[in-house]
Amino acid sequence: MRVRTINNAAVLLGIVIAGVGALEVLAPQNMVVFHAGEAGRPEYMERITPDRMQFYGILSIVVGLVLAGYAASPIRREAAAIEDYVWQTSRDLQQRFGESPYYTIDQVNRSAERGKFSRKYIVYAHAMFADREQFNSHYHATAFSYDKLRGVVARRYLDGARDFNAAALIRMSRGLYEDHTSCEVSSS
Fold it and tell me: pLDDT tens digits for 67-85?
């Protein structure tokens, strides 16, 4: 949820910045800006002309749109989906099916559907919670790599330890590890 919340806040902030920029372009005004020195006292004043206000407005529009576009990008949506799988799906799997080193593809699908998580990136959840044999059987004719997908998760949440199993993710999501590097890993 954290990545999703940050993404949504960044999109909103980008829209606000672009909106303020649009106002600066459409209704420029003379303005005086005080620049604070030490101890918060005004050090000098800057007069901003309507032309300069329009320049700042265009700059604000560009910055706002870039920020909103990045926050709404597929890269950020993918990160939010992976985070949902790590923190939420792992807990749901444990509650519904008990703690297990691995889960079936069907169990992972049902947990993801129950949580209303993105199906677009479900392949990451399959790589996190299913064993290699099941994953390869399910994705036999595709370009998905079990190791590469698990590597993305390992780098972000497990300090690069790719030999994790579902039980380690579940324990991590419950907060049983102070330091994620101490997660037990399976030997697969």
Answer: 999 888 888 888 888 888 8
| Torsion of Cα atoms, 115 then 176 then 102 then 4, to 10° | 30
Interhelix angle 90-97/166-173, nearest 10 degrees: 110
Q: Are 158 and 79 in a shared domain?
A: yes
Give residue for tokens 């032309």.
51
Q: What is the pLDDT of residues 46-55, one digit of tens each?
A: 888 999 999 9
Distance of alpha carbon 117 from alpha carbon 88, whole angstroms: 9
Same domain, yes or no: 93 and 151: yes
How many distinct structural domains can be found in the chain?
2
Provide the CA 21 distance to its chain's centre, in angstroms.
27
H-state helical runs in the chain: 2-26, 50-71, 74-84, 90-97, 105-114, 122-129, 132-138, 146-157, 166-173
